[in-house]
Write a structure and sequence with these properties.
alpha/beta
Length: about 375
């Protein structure tokens, strides 16, 4: 619900009721990811999307029923490609959605959730989506507190433990537990939405290519930082849309920040005095992607310099250099697209090959945690 949270808050604060439909499970070529959400107000206003337009009309009708009855519903849309147009799911995938009513009385901690997201503090929302007891019950979980209840102390504790683990990995999904939190019983299904802070993209080198890369990074949902040691180039005027502009030696800055499995590092300086100490440090981090700009000649020289300072062959193999996929890019904007394409492929295990040349499923399993809605 992250993508619609700011938009539904005015309804909530004005005392209105609305229904939220959330994708809790998908199969095959599902058009939207788990966690995608759509809200329908009492006046019929719609915010968000659960299928990119395929089944929104049907979901709208269910939302109206939920608002009228006050009872949540689980609905499934999915047919084969041959008759997909009968229900409007044109891609042939399958979506399972939980549609629930929301107002100040039923979800008193929505403001707590919104404040945590705004402050970039990790928070998870657990909701009972299947099972006879406590359907629609909610438990809000932070690093050190919980709000609300799913109906029992042992169930709350089990879900809290699992939700914090999922939150640490930035994962959203279903838990199947017994009514008292038993791990090997599947009496209840609990949907856990992880509102982890956005993944980080750090762009080193305040050049024109960096400006284009920063814009596409923001578009993809990253928290974007641009870092350069030269104050004349690293200015807010040149990078108005990024989250941070840092004037510092790149490797000194990287020493001070937390780099996790969701962090992307783009080294665009292609200057040995910056690149070598920075890459020697970056390749030893947990970053899911480390890319470095430069020609093939620059790449070979860079490899030799990194070997001389003790970087192992195993770490060198992690570096994407020359950076980006072969798209024939020339301009900074085109180059940014090629780099972004490589980052997406790395995160989701894509091949970078044209889909027309492949027969494998279009949507595979991720190899690293990615931005969640």
């Amino acid at each position: 619900m992250r993508d619609i949270l700011e938009d539904v808050l005015p309804w909530y604060r004005e005392g209105g009721r609305f229904a939220v439909a959330t994708v809790v499970r998908t199969w095959s070529s599902s058009p939207r990811p788990i966690g995608a959400a759509m809200a329908v107000s009492e006046t019929g206003e719609v915010i968000g999307s659960v299928s990119g337009g395929c089944v929104e009309g049907a979901v709208y009708e269910v939302a109206q029923e939920v608002l009228e009855s006050g009872q949540p519903q689980m609905v499934t849309y999915g047919v084969s490609d041959s008759d997909a147009f009968q229900v409007g799911l044109t891609c042939g995938g399958t979506l399972e959605l939980f549609v629930q009513p929301v107002d100040a009385a039923s979800f008193e901690h929505l403001e707590v959730l919104a404040e945590a997201v705004q402050a970039r503090q990790p928070v998870a929302l657990a909701t009972v989506v299947a099972g006879a007891d406590g359907l629609g019950g909610r438990l809000l979980v932070t690093a050190d507190q919980t709000y609300g209840s799913l109906g029992g102390g042992r169930l709350d504790q089990a879900v809290t433990d699992d939700a914090r683990g999922m939150l640490g990995l930035g994962r959203t999904g279903l838990l199947h537990l017994g009514r008292d939190g038993e791990r090997r019983v599947e009496e209840l299904s609990v949907f856990v939405e992880s509102y982890a802070p956005p993944p980080r993209m750090i762009v080193f080198g305040a050049i024109d290519f960096a400006a284009a890369m920063a814009r596409i990074g923001k578009f993809l949902g990253f928290h974007v930082t641009v870092c350069d040691a030269r104050p004349v180039f690293a200015t807010r005027r040149r990078f108005p849309d990024v989250d941070e502009v840092v004037v510092a030696w790149p490797h000194k800055y990287l020493e001070q920040v937390e780099v996790d499995e969701r962090t992307v590092l783009c080294v665009l300086t292609h200057d040995p005095k910056f690149d070598v100490p920075l890459l020697a440090l970056a390749l030893g981090t947990k970053a899911c992607y480390v890319g470095a700009m430069g020609s093939r000649r620059t790449h070979l020289d860079r490899l030799q310099r990194l070997r001389e300072v003790g970087v192992s062959e195993q770490d060198l193999a992690r570096m994407s250099s020359p950076i980006g996929l072969d798209l024939g890019a020339r301009t900074p904007e085109e180059t940014a697209v090629s780099i972004a394409a490589e980052i997406i492929a790395r995160m989701w295990g894509g091949t970078g090959q044209p889909l027309t040349s492949m027969s494998a499923p279009i949507h595979g399993e991720p190899l690293a945690s990615v931005p969640t809605p």
